[in-house]
Design goal:
Layout: H1 2-14, H2 23-27, H3 30-51, H4 65-89, H5 104-107, H6 111-136, H7 142-147, H8 149-174, H9 178-193, H10 199-213, H11 221-247, H12 253-256, H13 261-264, H14 270-279, H15 289-292, H16 295-302, H17 304-308, H18 317-350, H19 355-367, H20 374-395, H21 400-406, H22 408-417
Helix pairs in contact: 1-3, 1-4, 4-14, 4-18, 6-8, 6-9, 8-9, 8-10, 8-20, 9-10, 10-19, 14-18, 19-20, 21-22
Amino acid sequence: MVLQIALLAVVLRLGKHNNADPTFYKYFNPHAFFGLFVTLFFIIPEIYGLTHYYYLDGFPFAVTERLFIDGAWLFTVFLGFVCVGMLLARPARVEAPITDRSKMILESIETRHLKLLTVFLASGVFANLYLAMQLSGSTGFRSQLVKSASGQALTIIVYFGSFAAALLTAYFISVKRYWLGAAVLVTFSASVLLTESRGRILWPAAITVILLISRRAKPPFARLAVIGVLTLVVLLLLDPVNKYLASGTPIQLSDIFNIDAPFQRRNFDGMSNFVLISQSGLTEPDWSRWLSGGNVDFMTKFFPDVLASGVAFGVTIPGWLYMAGGVFGVCAGGIFYGMLLGQINRLVRRTIAPELLVGYLFAMTWLGAVGGDFVGSLDKAAASFAPAVVYWLVCNRAKTGRHAVDRPHMQQLSMNEV
């Protein structure tokens, strides 16, 4: 575990191309997202597992201490090869300090931007309400509804709402119109709660915080720690509140503040899933899974009853790589994934349009989710990035002359780059 933490430190260091990097590029680069997800889905569950009999009760076979430790070592190998990939993608020389375009995200918002964002927000809220009505009248599972053609279309519209909720909330807070910011976030969050989906509340709120922090020279770590604790409490409250609203089940404090609950409910199950895949002896690598992904095969092999109920656990990125190519797949795939994150980091640093940086943040919630289904998340990453592209294209369709008048700071930017 000490080696894993050391490798994570290397990952975070490789994400910084220059010591003078602005806050956004220093703390919210792809490497930082990867580090966050590794910590949540592998490091913390590994610590919990070592002190709670590996929290594998109810698994389809008994995973011994030896198998758990072997799985942890193989994950360490994966982290090492991810570092190799990041090194290969890293520029050969130290880059010059870059212009902080992240600060322009909120500064460039004008009346026409606000109008478009309001349309995005209203569309997302109504899409959530429609999904909620469809869900209440359906006898099937939520996942089946979302995977239908109409459900996928509505989900894409919801991404537009998420994008607008984050940007509008951050903007109103930045101009000290706090009540408008709160109204936007509460309205969108309330519509999301009706669809029984928590993640679509979490990420718009988190990205709002990122946009506000990026305007500072240094993140307020103490304040962020308080926000993190409050966020955790809110997340623990969501399930009991949903049950109370749906069936009138009383809210028990013992259920809310039970430290075992997130692991027993498999909210953070990356390490345990990877141990199952790589150490059980029940997984036969198949090269076709490089393109198809391994999530369905993983669920069919280990949790068929859960899959039949319309729920799926994440195969994890190293788990997918093992199912596709065994130990060789974990090593080679680790290099590929590290290079991918490194290339995304370089693209983010070179992005001229600040609006696209918001889309990048939403896309990384899928691409950096090492505990999820990478292949199955590619379309979601593209869909979550799409609102930023539409926003950028629509709001910047004006000619160069008007663009220069409306946004003089871009003129200054161009002169600096020359």
